[in-house]
Structure formats: C-alpha cells, structure tokens
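[User]
Um, tokens okay?
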Amino acid sequence: MGGPSVAWMDGGLVPFGEARVPIEDRGLQLAESVYEVIAITGGRVRMLDAHARRMQAGAAELGIADGVPDDESWERIAGELCARDPVREGLLYAQVSGGVAPRAHVPKERPRPSFWAYVRAYRFPREADVARGLRAVTQLDPRWGRCDLKTVMLLPAVIAKRAAAARGAGEAIFVGPEGEVREGASSNVLLVEGRTLVSPVQTSHLLPGTTSPRIQGLAADAGLDVRAEAVSVDRLRAADEVFVASTTFLVMPITHVDGEPIGRGTAGPITADLAGRLRDDLELD
C-alpha cells in the first residue's frame, strides 16, 4: 500500500492529506507532547496496553493526561485506523500535545490537549537483517534529565543518528558523564555475558522500553539469567554479545562499537535466538 489515507485528529477520521497541526500548538512550539510508536504484525496491533500506559504516565508528568484516550477509546481508534488502512505489517503512530494557545510558557487559560494518530506500512527486520546486524558508535549524552518520558524532543537523537550514519553506523549509544551506558538514540541497549542478559539500570536518563521487557521474558524462558546492572563502556565492549531493542529494531545485534568488534564481530547465537523468538511471538514469518 502507499502512505496513510486517513488520520485520527481530535475525535474523528480526516483525510491524511488534510490533517493539520495549528501553528500555535504547544507540542510544535514548546515540545509539550509525548508520542508512541506501536507495532502492527499479522494484521494485529501489538502491546497496545503497554504503550497506552506509558503515554498516560508521560502525559501526566506534562499535565496533559486528559488528552490521552481511555482504554476503550484506544481500541476503537486503532480499530478504525486499521480498518481504513489495513496493513499486515506496519506501525501505529500516536501523539498527544498540550493543545493550542497563544505562545507562552504558562498560558493564561489552559488549552484542551490534542490527540492524533495514523497507521503506516513498515517492514520489520527478518533473520537476514539480524545476521547482518548493525554497527554503533558511542556519544556523550547531550539530552535533558527526563529521558524516561517519551517526548518529541528528539533533536539530540536526530543529530546522533546523523553522526552515526556519517561513520557507517546504524545506531548511536548515549553515554553519561561517568562513562555509564544509557541507551541508543532510538533503542534500549542489552548485553550478553555468558548465559546472562544484562540491561542498564533504569533511571530518568533511560526510556522504559516496551519491547525490552518482552525480550527479557523470552530470555528467562530460554534459561538465561536476567539482570539490571550498571554498564560501563568498557563492559559494553567486552561483552560476548550486544544488541539493541525497540519497536522498530525488534532485536538487532550490534557487531561493532566505535569500529571495534563485539565478540567475533558478527551476530551472536543468543541474540539470534532471542530475535527469532520475538519474531515468532509477533507472528512474523
């Protein structure tokens, strides 16, 4: 299929080409907005509850939680969008912003939050993509202190991804001032050490993932020990395997970091196994 034909805008469907955000929208001008990207596989919207909870929590921190649909409305909106733009494999994008008001940090009257969403076709990684893996580069984290909120303040990620691409890499890994590994520019980072799966400890500098907990559950089912611990760059580079996880990456091996190989410099067996388990879970053939 081509691009989206419709979008959900503040209570109803509109033609995608006519969907507009007003120029004084607070998400546009002030980044007062949170968003979610949700997988559609096998024609089904996946993990909608987890994404809805994360959006609700983030919106509450921004004071715009009343703009997030309730559970019943989420199901209805997703159903209507998928009925109009039926995809077997794609992404549901959803965003809530602080609404429209004359530009001010604190408007005299609180505007009504705005919510919009749409569906777009997307091809998820398969076994051949996992076998190739990605290269990554590390970068000192320039972002603000509340990266646990999935806001639209993505300029640091854009710049980091651009710099990574210039170096032949597919992901940038943000590192804190003490050398602690945080997360990728658009992913969570996980390490394999022997039969142990390690993720950095959750802090306000990391987005709580929706895919990563699912992978950790699959890892536990496979008999791996699953831990959250402090991870330094040196520990990252010394790991047997490293991979990133996200809605769009699923499980993607990192073969090199800053030009140096991880393990043998190829996708490792545990990462490949977890990637296959997640594809099976999502009914991706």
Observations:
- The CA atoms of residues 148 and 206 lie 5 Å apart.
- Residues 48-62 form the longest helix (15 residues).
- The domain at 6-121 is CATH 3.30.470.10 (D-amino Acid Aminotransferase; Chain A, domain 1).
